[in-house]
Specification:
Blueprint lengths: L4 H9 L8 H9 L4 E4 L6 H11 L3 E5 L3 H13 L4 E4 L5 H12 L5 E4 L7 H9 L2 E6 L19 H6 L6 E6 L4 H11 L5 E4 L7 E6 L4 H11 L4 E5 L3 H13 L4 E4 L5 H12 L5 E4 L12 E6 L6 H8 L9 E6 L3 H11 L9 H23 L4 H8 L17 E6 L1 H18 L5 H9 L4 H6 L15 H13 L3 E3 L5 E3 L3 H6 L5 E6 L17 E4 L3 E4 H18 L3 H4 L2 H10 L4 H4 L7 H21 L1
Parallel strand pairs: 1-6, 1-7, 2-4, 2-5, 3-4, 5-6, 8-13, 9-11, 9-12, 10-11, 12-13
Antiparallel strand pairs: 14-17, 15-16, 18-19
């Protein structure tokens, strides 16, 4: 007898209740209706199609953009007792033949496939003989040219559907899509009267922060040292930067590896596996390491350089905290990042499928997105609110869980400092005949003796060193306020120029105020401060749990993962272990009450975890 959706949710996924939006999407698919779900990363999108796939007659095809993402999903499904497979270029020709044969024999309920594979003759021939209950389009924003990860191969999906004798239910899911992209998805996929559910873009467990360090390398080393026990991703804008940062971390003894498109496929996949299996805790990568990672225990994502768009940033930052555990998203901003991002936008990879008019339209769109991204880095307002507002979601004025909200912000009269900064910008242009970027202006004002300043003769200006009594960070904050306030603007090379509005400050003594913030260091992980057995730690997602028991269970999970050669999060997520440490089950019945423990995993791992919990209790 087929289980109910509630029974299947517990049996395969270990949960006793649906999250927001899940049940409505599942019910619609089971009734034969197309759906479109926009849910944040970690919001449970995969369950929305995996569960109805298990309860439907026939097979479900899932179109997915990246090989690594397919592998992670299939590995997790198999550990939950679900027959699943993938068909992509990572398989040998012989393996593909075997997979297609097994598919024809209905040995799998869920099959992941790359979009490029859909119209290949061998796959299409098999698909036409199958009873396909559902076709799922994962990362559906890839079909839109206005999305940040446009994949022309996604445009083949409607053609594939037209070749099938019977059109299956079509489902589309994404985490990051503006209103324009959402409309594009609906139109291009030809969804029929779809149930559309937008649960929102908020990730309450993520803490956002923008830092503006004078020395990025030193700042990065401090951040990594404070998080040395956790897995993290460090994003860089270029391959060269990835190599430099990875070498820096390795030289300091940190277990870092790298990922970018310039590496051989074999090394790139080996490095990714090292990270997924926790053999290397730190991944330094370009945006090539994006959607293709489903690792649920990433505790932090650091952007060493500013991305080109809010869409890209939110998706990359969203790799953190996928299991609901608290995680940090930190962006290290420097004015030079804007120039690098603009260069990458103006020199994209060639796409022969685009007309010249389309290229120009995309260029204008991307430059506008860059301005919005730069605004995020410079704002003193709530960072979460800035992100949610970009995606059109209403939000409170403050969130209490971002660097700006936790900082002490004081509105100060900075007229004198503003006059000095504006005067310096004007004098530099008058002296050199051309303007300079924000970094050199700030260093001139601060009285730097570095070679570039003296070579240009900036130390001979009357404004040289006039703000040496302030920190460079403080000067930058006031300069950013002048840019935001319209007193300064940047040219195509990101050099600073005076605007007409600056005249009022320089010549008519108009007052300038700016919000100056004093950042508050985020709360440190209490694990480093706990002493003794049986201490409790308060977690937003799991409530109060025994911290030492949690660490004991983590060690057991690591041993099991090494024994079975799987990533630790495939055994149990951090969130499941925290709930286990809170409930401390000592029977199978109690073990099944842990969130994230289904029947299959309880049968497979229950005895070992229960025995470990009993031993721990005896010691206490």
């Amino acid at each position: 007898m087929r289980p109910t959706k509630e029974e299947a949710l517990k049996q395969y996924f270990g949960y006793t209740a649906f999250r927001e939006g899940q049940e409505a999407l599942i019910d619609a698919q089971l009734s034969g209706r197309d759906v479109f779900g926009v849910m944040p990363t970690g919001g449970g999108k995969s369950i929305c199609y995996q569960l109805p796939a298990l309860l439907s007659e026939g097979v479900t095809l899932v179109v997915s953009p990246l090989i690594s993402l397919m592998k992670d999903q299939v590995r997790s499904l198999k550990k939950a007792g679900v027959a699943a497979a993938y068909v992509n270029s990572s398989l040998t020709p012989q393996q593909i033949v075997l997979a297609l044969r097994n598919i024809l024999q209905y040995k799998y309920k869920i099959i992941y496939v790359a979009p490029e594979r859909l119209l290949q003759e061998s796959f299409l021939r098999v698909a036409q003989q199958l009873k396909i209950a559902m076709l799922v389009v994962d990362e559906a924003h890839c079909i839109s040219q206005w999305g940040q990860d446009f994949r022309p191969s996604y445009l083949k999906i409607p053609t594939f559907l037209s070749y099938l004798d019977r059109r299956p239910v079509v489902s589309a899911f994404t985490a990051t899509a503006t209103q324009t992209v959402r409309e594009d998805i609906l139109r291009l996929l030809g969804l029929r009267d779809p149930l559309t559910v937008v649960t929102g873009f908020d990730r309450p467990n993520l803490r956002f922060e923008v830092m503006r360090p004078d020395n990025k390398q030193s700042c990065l080393l401090t951040l990594v040292r404070e998080r040395k026990a956790e897995s993290g991703v460090i994003y860089c804008s270029t391959r060269k930067e990835v190599e430099k940062v990875c070498e820096l971390l390795r030289d300091k003894g940190y277990p870092a590896t790298r990922y970018h498109a310039g590496l051989e496929d074999e090394e790139r996949m080996a490095n990714q596996d090292d990270f997924i299996f926790d053999r290397r805790r730190i991944m330094v990568a370009t945006n090539a390491f994006g959607m293709g990672i489903d690792k649920s225990n990433i505790a932090y994502v650091i952007h060493y350089n500013m991305p080109c768009s809010i869409e890209a940033y939110y998706q990359e930052a969203g790799r953190a905290g996928r299991d609901g555990s608290p995680a940090e998203c930190i962006l290290l901003f420097a004015p030079g990042d804007v120039h690098t991002a603009k260069f990458l936008i103006e020199h994209p990879q060639e796409n022969e499928e685009l007309t010249e008019e389309e290229r120009q339209t995309l260029l204008e769109r991307d430059l506008d997105r860059l301005n919005r991204m730069t605004g995020y880095c410079r704002t003193n307002r709530c960072l979460r609110g800035y992100l949610l507002g970009y995606f059109g979601q209403r939000h409170p004025e403050t969130c209490g869980n971002c660097g700006n909200c936790s900082a002490t912000v004081t509105e100060k009269n900075v007229t004198t400092e503003a006059q000095m900064i504006l005067s310096c910008v004007g004098r530099i242009k008058g002296y050199l005949g051309y303007p300079l970027g924000e970094t050199l202006v700030i260093r001139t004002l601060h009285g730097s003796r570095e070679k570039r300043i003296t070579e240009l003769g900036l130390d001979r200006l009357s404004t040289y060193g006039v703000l040496r009594h302030l920190s460079r960070t403080a000067i930058r904050e006031i300069t950013d306020a002048l840019i935001t306030g319209g007193y300064l603007r940047t040219d195509s090379h990101d050099a600073l120029l005076l605007t007409a509005k600056a005249d009022g400050v320089l010549y008519r003594k108009e007052a300038v105020t700016a919000e100056i913030r004093e950042a508050v260091k985020p709360r440190q992980d209490a694990r480093s401060k706990q002493e003794g057995f049986g201490e409790r730690w308060q977690s937003p997602e799991a409530g109060s749990y025994d911290l030492r028991l949690y660490e004991t269970l983590r060690e057991l999970r690591t041993r099991i993962a090494q024994r079975e050669n799987v990533p630790v999060y495939v055994v149990f997520s951090n969130a499941a272990l925290k709930d286990m440490a809170a409930k401390a089950p000592v029977t199978q019945t109690q073990f099944l009450e842990v969130s994230g423990v289904g029947n299959y995993k309880a049968e497979r791992y229950g005895d070992e975890f229960i025995a470990e919990i009993r031993r721990y209790k005896e010691l206490c």
